[in-house]
Amino acid sequence: MTLNACGAVNAGKTTLLENLQRGFFQRKRTTKEQPNTCEDMAARTAGIEVGIIDIPGVGKLRKMDMAGHSWAFTINDFFLGKQTSISLVLFDVTKSDEQINAELMYHLGLLKAKESRKVLTHRPEVVLVATHCDKCSHAEVRAKKFYLSMRNEYQAYLNFHANVMVLNCCDPDAFGTLKEVLKELHKKILKVSMCTVETITSFMLK
Fold it and tell me: What's the chain's average pLDDT?
């Protein structure tokens, strides 16, 4: 199973994936020992970073950390939309309405396009994540507005989680709800995958 992290440059994708892997004791230790790299230009992803992510309470997933640079978008398109994947689509809630709308339309449009190329047998699981909430006094309201707008636009093609996540990706203690969401979606995809295998096996044995 794959966890995709999509979004514009500096949305917080890499930081989010790093902090998702930290348990309670790791969070306390790394908060004291490690410098804040959220604004570190050199730490930004170039291309696609592929690896294994081990999330406490969820399990091990294959990760796809998608670069937010425009030149990488055609590469990202190849990896998006796998049936056994969860896509986290991040957006910086402090940006203008026009910027957020354009960025979300682009990344969600890629996921929609992947499904439109074939018979729609499933809708990819998508979780919208509003980041930099510590820098916006009305982050919850803005995040909900864009969530409702994007869900209305793409719900025929994508399975949106029932709520938008509003996070400060640099706060390791802010990921409890997102981990619960990923745990829920992980179980859902496994169940669907097992049913698909059973159906195919039954058909072949007839």
Answer: 79
Which among 25, 20, 37 has a CA at the least distance from the CA of 174?
Answer: 20
Q: Which residues contact 15 (CB under 8 A, 6 or more apart)?
A: 37, 38, 169, 170
- Residue 181 near residue 111, CB atoms below 8 Å: no
- 119 CB-contact burial (10 Å; exposed 0-12 / middle 13-18 / buried 19+): exposed
| Torsion sign across C-alpha atoms 71, 73, 77, 78 | positive
Residue 87 pLDDT: 92
- Tell me the residue ranges of DSSP E strands in the chain: 2-7, 48-55, 59-66, 85-92, 125-131, 159-160, 165-166
- Going by pLDDT thresholds of 50, 70 and 90, the confidence category of residue 117 is low
Q: How far apart are the C-alpha atoms of 195 and 8, rounded to whole Å?
A: 35
- Does the structure show a pLDDT above 70 at 43? no
